[in-house]
Design brief:
This protein has about 450 residues and is α+β, with helices and mostly antiparallel strands. It has two domains: about 290 residues, BirA Bifunctional Protein, domain 2 (2-Layer Sandwich); about 90 residues, Rossmann fold, CATH 3.40.50.800. The chain is built from 17 helices and 16 strands. The strands form three sheets. An eight-stranded mixed β-sheet has the order 1-5-6-11-10-9-7-8. Helix 6 crosses helix 12. The longest helix has 20 residues.
């Protein structure tokens, strides 16, 4: 029998990990609710044509396709064999696969809005926390199955939505204590760059290439641009753009000098300035810990087809990690499903990478790993019957507790409490039964008390 294993790029989560992940998700959801967002869930699988063509060529290659059920049926085997040949040629065939695991939460959300827009109260503010799947090469911070945590607003064009989503990012990371950069750019500026360096038809070639700048460096980006058909003069213009540096205002000024003759660029710059100014006006109200910086990053591209305006990317400071969040405006996403004219903007939190960052920086509170608060030691049949009743009373007070199931030697029960990080022990032996009290011990400090009721124990601990 082979050794048990799990697929590459997936993970099991033990109790301590689940508690820490729950801490992250609870923090994010609390902020979403604070800003008036409502929860939503969609199926793990979508029809293949819902997903294909929405993420660009690079994204489409990472979609996990699901084989049709019933392919082992002899009636279907010939069709399946022919379909497989088509797939090997890079073509999809419904005789082999019609469904796929969702790649992200944004496209399924757009599909949901397109199907239900007549019943939704617009603008519709939703948040969604579910796993997604990508056929990527597993590495640090990159998994094949991982959770996304999204917030989106559809049915509104106002840039106040971008300001609010920026504030949500800031508040979540301040509450978690993670120092971050919120990087901003605007796809309108990238569209103007394409117009400046070869025409609008070069937009995707340019954004796909510069989206890899952090990974492959400037020289390889230039080589890829040339491979995609851009001239050396056009590539030189893009290099000038990518080398823009300085403060936010200095970078905005440099872009204006380079591309300000184009209306699209002027609109993009105006939108960025609005968000930066509005966000700055509210920051005196923030009292949570954690360092948050807003940075104009004109190398930011987010190589997905559907973004049309301001785009976001979050980078944690002090750790080597890819982005831990991202998003942007997508003013015609529902148009992909036959329902045009519903603008939208959204952000996503990379929960798995946020977890890795918090582990590396030691940011989880010590209390996060605590499950059971009180362990009743088992000291005999009569004692355990009484302990069980008191345990139920303590649970009614909202305190987490358990009774050790067997009356084994006390060192074994102490070891159990230590391994589970249980902070308090309650002893109810023959002496306590006779005297009508119980003994409570703080297992961290060694301090202990004789108390009359579990209410006193709850209040004391």
């Amino acid at each position: 029998m082979s050794k048990p294993s799990i697929p590459s790029g997936t993970r099991d989560f033990g109790p301590d990990t689940v508690r820490k992940r729950t801490y992250i998700l609870t923090t994010i959801k609390a902020v979403f609710e604070l800003y008036g967002f409502q929860p939503l869930e969609t199926p793990a699988m979508e029809n293949l044509d819902t997903l294909m063509g929405k993420y660009g060529d690079e994204g489409d290659k990472l979609i996990f396709k699901i084989l049709n059920n019933g392919l082992s049926d002899p009636k279907n085997s010939e069709k399946a064999r022919a379909a497989f040949e088509q797939v090997m040629l890079g073509k999809n065939d419904k005789n082999l696969t019609e469904r796929a695991l969702r790649y992200d939460l944004t496209i399924p959300f757009a599909r949901y809005v397109a199907m239900n827009h007549g019943q939704l109260t617009l603008p519709f503010r939703r948040y969604q926390v579910q796993p997604v799947w990508r056929a990527d090469r597993p590495q640090k911070g990159r998994y094949r199955e991982f959770y996304q945590c999204d917030a989106d607003v559809v049915g509104s064009k106002t840039l106040l939505n971008e300001v609010e989503l920026t504030s949500i990012y800031a508040e979540v990371f301040q509450r978690l204590g993670i120092p971050v950069e919120i990087r901003l750019n605007n796809r309108k500026i990238l569209a103007a760059l394409a117009e400046h360096c070869g025409g609008a038809d070069k937009m995707m070639d340019i954004t796909i290439a510069i989206d890899k700048l952090d990974k492959i460096g400037m020289e390889q980006v230039k080589a890829e641009l040339e491979q995609r058909g851009l001239s050396q003069e056009q590539v030189a213009g893009i290099e000038t753009y990518l080398q823009i540096a300085g403060s936010n205002e200095e970078k905005l000024g440099a872009v204006e000098r380079l591309l300000g003759h184009l209306e699209t660029a002027r609109m993009g710059l105006e939108e960025l300035r609005f968000v930066l100014d509005m966000y700055a006006e509210t920051q005196g109200l923030v009292k949570e810990p954690g360092k948050v910086e807003l940075v104009c990053d004109f190398t930011l591209a987010r190589g997905l087809n559907y973004y049309t305006g301001i785009i976001f990317e979050i980078r944690a400071l002090g750790v080597k990690m890819g982005s831990i969040g991202g998003g942007g405006r997508y003013d015609d996403l529902t148009g992909l499903f036959g329902v045009p004219g519903i603008p939208g903007v959204g952000i996503s939190f990379g929960v798995d990478r946020i977890y890795d960052v918090m582990e590396e920086l030691g940011l989880f509170p010590e209390t996060v790993a605590v499950g059971t608060e009180f362990l009743f030691f088992n000291q005999g049949e009569a004692e355990s019957r009484r302990a069980f009743r008191l345990m139920q009373e303590l649970r009614q007070l909202g305190r987490r507790c358990e009774l050790y199931p067997e009356a084994v030697k006390l060192p074994k029960q102490f070891k159990y409490a230590d391994q589970k990080k249980i902070p308090f022990a309650i002893f109810l032996g023959s002496e306590e039964l006779a005297a009508g009290h119980l003994t409570v011990k703080n297992l961290l400090t060694g301090e202990q008390w004789k108390l009359a009721t579990v209410l006193e124990a709850s209040d004391r601990c």
